[in-house]
Amino acid sequence: MLQISELTKTYATGDTALSEVTLDVPEGQIVGLIGPSGAGKSTLIRCINRLVEPTAGQIQLGRVDLATIGHRELRRQRRRIGMIFQEYSLVERLTVMENVLSGRLGYVPFWRSFTRRFPPEDIQRAYQLLDRVGLMAQADKRADALSGGQRQRVGIARALAQQPELLLVDEPTASLDPRTSRQIMRLITEICVEQRLPAIINIHDVPLAQQFVQRIVGLHAGRIVFDDHPAALNDATLTTIYGEEDWNPNREDDGSTPANAPQAVGDAGTSRESLEAAAR
């Protein structure tokens, strides 16, 4: 279980990105992190694995407080945390297989990592992961020859190669088309369910989050302002998270419905277009 208590991040400029955030993520739960730009979503994810150093608070993963350990121990603990990035962060000149195996670098001696010679069991595991994400046929291709969706699948396989206890996902669909976005979210959530792997997914696409995650946490100005089941999102909660807006796409100032209005989706009567616009 991940337990975050009163996590705060204040920069040297005096700007506060996170203010006393408290959040528990139990085993197997998939959490969608939503909120406007600048709300602190990426900062929260990066504080957990200390790509950003927190100012105060606790980040407890099992029995270890990640916020207070030294850098040598932090390198070891990061093996327990898989990270999937928005911009993939692949080594473009390496093959798909080599990129996946890079998820094992924290477990092998330096000479093996330098020469990219990995144990047979790591290679077998990498092939299994490539098969699971649908890229077995691409194993020997260079990463720079892949599409965006394929690159994100490589990133997923690389994170899973660590055999993590927690998965952090930073805007995995921001650069993808709608169909590929759904495929990637479906893949991530299915794997998390299969492996009982807890995950925090920072995502701008609110309808996509509603479709795939089990719980939504909304951030506004560095504070948690919503924490509930996706079905609990409505006009009032969206306003709390994103600010004042007319969330009904079919309503004009005079109360009439325009002929070209988008069709509403979901119980709350919100459309994908309006929520995506709000999330941006």
TrEMBL record:
InterPro entries on file: AAA+_ATPase (IPR003593), ABC_transporter-like_ATP-bd (IPR003439), ABC_transporter-like_CS (IPR017871), ABC_transpr_PhnC (IPR012693), MetN_ABC_transporter-like (IPR050086), P-loop_NTPase (IPR027417)
Pfam families: ABC_tran
Keywords associated with the record: ATP-binding, Cell membrane, Membrane, Nucleotide-binding, Translocase, Transport
Gene3D superfamilies: P-loop containing nucleotide triphosphate hydrolases
Primary localization: membrane
SUPFAM superfamilies membership: P-loop containing nucleoside triphosphate hydrolases
Ranges of residues in domain ABC transporter: 2-246
Bilayer topology: Peripheral membrane protein
Keyword Isomerase set for record: no
Spans annotated as Disordered: 244-280
GO molecular function: ATP binding
Protein name: Phosphonate ABC transporter ATP-binding protein
High-level lineage: Bacteria, Pseudomonadati, Pseudomonadota, Gammaproteobacteria, Chromatiales
Name of the gene encoding the protein in the UniProt record: phnC
